[in-house]
Amino acid sequence: MKKLLTALLAFSFILGGISTINAAVRANLNNPEQGINISEGDTFGHQPPALFGLDGAADPTAIFCKTLKDKPCIEAKSLNLWSQLSPCTVGATTNCIDSFYAEDEAGKRIQGEFVRYANEDSKWSFDESPSNNFPKTKGMGGVWKLSGLSGATTDLYYVSTYVNMFAEKVAGTEITSEQFGVGQFESGISPIKELSGQYSSSVALDSSNKSSDGSKSGGVGASGVSVDVIERDNCVMLEMGKCLQRQDFPANYRFGLTIKVGKKLSGWFHGRIYRPVLSITPGSGGQLIQIDALPVLVPSVLKKIPTSEISQELRSYLAQDRQYSEGSGYLMPGSSGKDAIDQAALWLPLIKDTATKSMQYWSFRMLNTWGESQDVQRCSNGSADISGIVTTNALAYSAGPPEYNKNEGSLDYKVLAPHYTSKGDLAVGTYDLLLKSEVARCIYGFSKAPISGSISIVNESGQSNVATTVINEKNGWLYMSANGFSYSSPTVKIKLSQEAEVVVIPTPTPTPSASAKPVVKTVTITCIKGKTSKKVTAVNPKCPSGYKKK
Question: 10 pLDDT exceeds 70?
Answer without folding.
Answer: no
